[in-house]
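We both want to read C-alpha coordinates more fluently, so let's practise on a single case. Once you have written the record down, we can walk along the chain together.
***
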Amino acid sequence: MESIGAVFSSQVSTSHMRAQETAKDQKRLMKVTEYVERCGKDHRCFVVFETESGNSIVIEDSPTGATAKRTDNPHNLADRTSLAKVTRATDCRMACLSVGEITTCETDVYAWATGESRDLRFRVN
Protein backbone atom coordinates (compact mmCIF):
# COMPACT_ATOMS: atom_id res chain seq x y z
CA MET A 1 0.00 0.00 0.00
CA GLU A 2 1.31 3.44 -0.94
CA SER A 3 0.87 6.59 1.07
CA ILE A 4 1.25 10.19 -0.01
CA GLY A 5 3.86 12.04 2.00
CA ALA A 6 3.46 15.50 0.45
CA VAL A 7 1.42 17.38 -2.11
CA PHE A 8 3.08 20.16 -4.06
CA SER A 9 1.40 22.98 -5.92
CA SER A 10 2.68 24.89 -8.93
CA GLN A 11 0.35 27.81 -8.22
CA VAL A 12 1.73 31.30 -7.60
CA SER A 13 1.31 32.61 -4.09
CA THR A 14 -1.95 34.54 -3.74
CA SER A 15 -0.01 37.59 -2.55
CA HIS A 16 1.50 37.89 -6.07
CA MET A 17 -1.81 37.55 -7.93
CA ARG A 18 -4.12 40.30 -9.11
CA ALA A 19 -7.43 40.99 -7.42
CA GLN A 20 -10.31 38.59 -8.06
CA GLU A 21 -12.38 39.28 -11.15
CA THR A 22 -16.14 38.92 -11.09
CA ALA A 23 -17.78 36.98 -13.90
CA LYS A 24 -20.09 39.20 -15.97
CA ASP A 25 -23.81 38.37 -15.64
CA GLN A 26 -24.41 38.15 -19.41
CA LYS A 27 -21.63 35.57 -20.05
CA ARG A 28 -22.85 32.10 -21.04
CA LEU A 29 -22.19 29.04 -18.90
CA MET A 30 -20.27 26.36 -20.80
CA LYS A 31 -19.55 23.55 -18.34
CA VAL A 32 -20.64 22.52 -14.86
CA THR A 33 -18.75 20.10 -12.59
CA GLU A 34 -19.70 18.89 -9.12
CA TYR A 35 -16.91 17.92 -6.71
CA VAL A 36 -16.71 16.38 -3.26
CA GLU A 37 -13.77 17.12 -0.96
CA ARG A 38 -12.66 16.00 2.47
CA CYS A 39 -13.18 18.53 5.24
CA GLY A 40 -11.68 17.11 8.43
CA LYS A 41 -13.62 13.92 9.17
CA ASP A 42 -16.53 15.08 7.03
CA HIS A 43 -16.91 15.99 3.38
CA ARG A 44 -18.45 18.86 1.48
CA CYS A 45 -19.60 19.39 -2.07
CA PHE A 46 -19.05 22.29 -4.41
CA VAL A 47 -20.03 23.05 -7.99
CA VAL A 48 -17.82 24.84 -10.52
CA PHE A 49 -19.33 26.65 -13.51
CA GLU A 50 -17.03 27.59 -16.39
CA THR A 51 -18.00 30.53 -18.61
CA GLU A 52 -17.36 31.28 -22.26
CA SER A 53 -14.78 33.88 -21.26
CA GLY A 54 -12.80 31.43 -19.08
CA ASN A 55 -14.10 32.53 -15.68
CA SER A 56 -14.89 30.00 -12.95
CA ILE A 57 -17.73 30.36 -10.48
CA VAL A 58 -17.76 28.17 -7.37
CA ILE A 59 -20.99 27.51 -5.49
CA GLU A 60 -20.66 25.59 -2.25
CA ASP A 61 -22.77 24.39 0.64
CA SER A 62 -23.05 26.54 3.71
CA PRO A 63 -21.94 24.57 6.80
CA THR A 64 -25.05 25.88 8.61
CA GLY A 65 -27.44 24.83 5.84
CA ALA A 66 -28.23 28.44 4.93
CA THR A 67 -27.87 29.99 1.48
CA ALA A 68 -24.92 28.66 -0.52
CA LYS A 69 -21.81 30.77 -1.05
CA ARG A 70 -20.71 32.00 -4.50
CA THR A 71 -17.05 32.80 -5.27
CA ASP A 72 -15.87 34.02 -8.66
CA ASN A 73 -12.41 32.93 -9.86
CA PRO A 74 -11.06 31.74 -6.48
CA HIS A 75 -7.28 31.71 -6.30
CA ASN A 76 -7.16 28.21 -4.78
CA LEU A 77 -9.46 26.52 -7.31
CA ALA A 78 -6.75 24.47 -9.05
CA ASP A 79 -5.56 23.14 -5.69
CA ARG A 80 -9.09 22.31 -4.50
CA THR A 81 -10.09 20.52 -7.69
CA SER A 82 -6.85 18.54 -7.77
CA LEU A 83 -7.55 17.17 -4.29
CA ALA A 84 -11.32 16.68 -4.74
CA LYS A 85 -13.22 13.96 -6.57
CA VAL A 86 -15.53 14.69 -9.49
CA THR A 87 -19.01 13.31 -8.83
CA ARG A 88 -20.54 14.49 -12.12
CA ALA A 89 -19.73 16.89 -14.96
CA THR A 90 -21.39 17.99 -18.17
CA ASP A 91 -21.36 20.50 -20.96
CA CYS A 92 -24.27 22.91 -20.39
CA ARG A 93 -23.99 25.03 -23.56
CA MET A 94 -27.29 23.70 -24.92
CA ALA A 95 -29.16 25.06 -21.89
CA CYS A 96 -28.19 28.64 -22.95
CA LEU A 97 -27.83 29.78 -19.33
CA SER A 98 -25.96 32.89 -18.23
CA VAL A 99 -23.98 33.77 -15.12
CA GLY A 100 -26.72 36.16 -13.98
CA GLU A 101 -29.27 33.35 -13.91
CA ILE A 102 -27.36 31.40 -11.23
CA THR A 103 -28.92 33.59 -8.52
CA THR A 104 -32.44 32.61 -9.65
CA CYS A 105 -31.76 28.97 -8.79
CA GLU A 106 -33.59 27.72 -5.70
CA THR A 107 -32.70 24.03 -6.03
CA ASP A 108 -29.66 21.91 -6.84
CA VAL A 109 -27.55 24.17 -9.07
CA TYR A 110 -26.08 21.22 -10.97
CA ALA A 111 -29.53 19.84 -11.79
CA TRP A 112 -30.71 23.34 -12.68
CA ALA A 113 -27.88 23.78 -15.20
CA THR A 114 -28.16 20.30 -16.73
CA GLY A 115 -31.87 19.60 -16.49
CA GLU A 116 -31.29 16.58 -14.20
CA SER A 117 -33.57 16.05 -11.28
CA ARG A 118 -31.94 15.21 -7.98
CA ASP A 119 -32.31 15.94 -4.27
CA LEU A 120 -32.18 19.59 -3.24
CA ARG A 121 -28.57 20.46 -2.41
CA PHE A 122 -27.62 24.10 -2.91
CA ARG A 123 -29.91 27.07 -2.54
CA VAL A 124 -28.56 30.20 -4.18
CA ASN A 125 -30.35 33.52 -3.61
Q: What stands out?
A: Residues 14-19, 118-125 have pLDDT under 50 and may be disordered. The longest helix spans residues 77-83. Residues 35 and 81 are 7 Å apart (CA to CA).
